[in-house]
Design a protein that fits this description.
The protein is mostly helical. The protein has three domains: 111 residues, no CATH class; 216 residues, Beta Polymerase, domain 2 (2-Layer Sandwich), CATH 3.30.460.10; 161 residues, Up-down Bundle (Four Helix Bundle (Hemerythrin (Met), subunit A)). The protein is built from 22 helices and eight strands. Strands 3, 4, 6, 7 and 8 form a five-stranded mixed beta sheet that branches. A hairpin with a 3-residue loop joins strand 1 and strand 2. The protein starts with 16 loop residues before the first helix and ends with a helix.
Length: 525
């Protein structure tokens, strides 16, 4: 890469021709815009009389990033937002060669959403990238202690709104940096994203429950035994492999309808729906600080028309009398995410016979699943998304999940398989039991990790729940850079999309091949 050298005094003048060429060689698509931004940065930095000329190193750092123009725009936003006391530390990070600088520039050049988190919280940026804090995933215990500190003195849901949102954003940013910089493997990243959700739900359960109990008293059974309530995670939350921008699928369950609160005698049938609504509001309400998670409650009995919370007996009755095959499939992921572990455990024990009952016509389950897959494929084809949909497209994540879930539903009951919520563990188990060859299981596992990496990076860019590879070449180049499939020169960036799409096509073709071989042969048994 050409070394750039210029007199910072010239930053206030139009970009010289020779400098314009240098900037293009670093990958800046519009040298005049880049030069203008550098001049504005200099306007903030020059009065501080920092030693040396930081701009050659700053341009080189941005030029070596995934998207130089975007990196410089976000660096400009950071300098503009920083206080005079913060700017020296910020400039030190972005101009001195280090792994921390590379990590920060990776975020600033690839993810508008995460860059905005840093722009709004410069102090957090300096704490994170001023040393090696970004290199290591925090443990669940460390995250728990951090959240407890942020909620110290909080006594109402309104007071908890901002700290919960700040905790989620900071935690997810650190996880994203570890992921993008290959400091942690994909399984650990997915588990840690899930830990953050569990902790936020537990905090919401506690603070909302505290407010309701202050008003109504503690719910009790038979006048002496405390009643209990649990938050059941479904989908990827239940499977402990949450996406970077997943919504969270929840069920709310309590022990019995005949309990009463100690203060005013409110029935548990009335009290716990209030608690469920309060938790949902605290987690999902859109505030100036965003929301913690989008919450999806449609998996409850009767969907949107059903009660927001049900007793254990209510769930048992529904699944025995009205339960459908798709609900059995969904309940494979059910896990107690927050609240009373005792109530959550009793709920899972109660529904287990419904999920894993032995029957002679179980292969019909696979036909139902395959018909569902065909409907999904038809819908994607009609909207032109099949080739680019990482989750639902042919050979995508959903196909791998259907293989794991289908066999578990068919054979898990009468063969007494353990309740396995994780897709990768189930694939390994299927190989051990002979339903998949070792090669098939390994190929599916490789594809699952690649596709989940790709899905997370798609979602990191915007903070939205999207699963489609962008069709624009420039956006694909950024995504390829985030996947580590392109280099830092303009030529290497240009080749990135083809490498990424080729890898994607190879994985999905292999998944589709295995799906056809395994699924259809099983339905013929």
């Amino acid at each position: 890469m050409t070394t750039l050298s210029f007199d910072r005094i010239a930053l206030s003048s139009p970009v010289p021709d020779e400098v314009s060429g240098h900037l293009r060689s670093f990958g800046f698509s519009d040298p005049a815009d880049a030069w203008h931004l550098l001049g504005q940065i200099d306007g903030r930095v020059a009065p501080l009389a920092l030693p040396g000329n930081p701009f050659p190193a700053l341009v080189e750092a941005a030029g070596a990033s995934i998207q130089p123009d975007r990196a410089l725009i976000n660096l400009h936003a950071l300098v503009t937002r920083s206080s005079e006391e913060q700017i020296p530390s910020l400039m030190k990070i972005v101009t001195e060669p280090s792994a921390s600088r590379d990590a920060l520039l990776t975020i600033l050049s690839s993810s508008p959403y995460l860059s905005n988190v840093l722009v709004q919280d410069v102090g957090f940026l300096l704490d994170t990238f001023g040393g090696d804090a970004w290199r290591t995933l925090q443990s669940a215990e460390e995250l728990d202690a951090e959240l407890a500190g942020m909620l110290q003195g909080v006594s109402s849901p309104d007071e908890a709104m901002k700290p919960l949102r700040t905790f989620k954003k900071r935690s997810y940013l650190r996880i994203a940096v570890c992921d993008l910089m290959k400091q942690s493997g994909t399984p650990a990243v997915l588990e840690r994203l899930t830990d953050v959700a569990d902790l936020c739900l537990q905090a919401a359960h506690d603070v909302c429950g505290m407010k309701l109990e202050a008003r109504h008293g503690r719910p009790m059974l038979d006048g002496s035994k405390p009643s209990g309530f649990a938050v059941i995670g479904m989908g990827k939350l239940g499977g402990r492999d949450l996406n970077f921008s997943s919504d969270i699928d929840l069920l709310y369950v309590y022990d019995a309808t005949d309990g009463r609160t100690a203060k005013d005698g409110t029935s548990t049938y009335e009290f716990y729906p209030k608690l469920a609504r309060a938790i949902t509001d605290l987690i999902s309400r859109l505030t100036p600080d965003g929301q913690v998670f989008r919450v999806d409650l449609r998996l409850r009995p009767e969907g949107r028309a059903g009660d927001i919370a049900n007793s254990i007996e209510g769930y048992r009755w529904h699944y025995e009398i009205q339960g459908q095959a798709w609900q059995r499939q969904a309940l494979l992921k059910a896990r107690c995410s927050a609240g009373s572990r005792e109530v959550g455990g009793r709920f899972l024990d109660t529904i287990q016979p419904f999920v894993f009952y032995p029957a002679l016509d179980q292969p019909l389950i696979l036909e139902d699943i395959n018909h569902m897959r065909e409907r999904i494929a038809k819908a994607l084809l009609e909207r032109g998304s099949d080739d680019y949909h990482v989750k639902l497209g042919k050979g995508g994540i959903r196909d791998i999940e259907f293989i794991a879930q289908g066999f578990q539903l068919v054979y898990g009951g009468f063969q007494g398989w353990p309740w396995e919520r994780g897709t990768r563990n189930m694939l390994a188990s299927l190989a051990e039991k002979g339903y998949l060859s070792e090669e098939e299981a390994a190929d599916l596992d490789d594809a699952y990790l690649f596709l989940r990496d790709l899905e997370n990076r798609i979602q990191m860019t915007s903070g939205q729940q999207t699963h489609e590879i962008p069709k624009e070449r420039a956006a694909q180049a950024v995504l390829a850079g985030m996947m580590g499939l392109s280099g830092t020169t303009p030529e290497a960036r240009e080749a990135g999309p083809d490498r990424m799409l080729s890898a994607y096509a190879g994985h999905t073709a292999r998944v589709h091949q295995i799906y056809d071989r395994v699924f259809h042969s099983a339905m013929e048994m």
